[in-house]
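Subject: sequence -> C-alpha cells, single chain

Hey, anyone have a minute? Need the predicted structure for the following. Not urgent.
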Amino acid sequence: MLQVGTVFHQAKSGRLIARLTKEVRPGVFVFGDGRKKVGRVVELIGPVRAPYASIAVVTSRLGKPGDPIFLEG
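Reply:
Had a minute. Here:
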C-alpha cells in the first residue's frame, strides 16, 4: 500500500476532502488503515502543485482529519 495523502475534512456533501502528497487519478479507490476501502476519488481540486481529492465515501467508518489514505499496489 502506498500512502498518497491525509484526510483534511468532511464536506457538507458527505465527501471526504484529502490533501494529496502523490499523484492520484480520478476514479481510483483509496483505502484507510487496515486496508479498509474508504471511497473513490471523484475529482481533484485546488492548485496543481498542492491538490486535494474529493472522495465519494463507500463506508460508514470515515477517517478523521490527519488520518492517512492509501492506494493499493
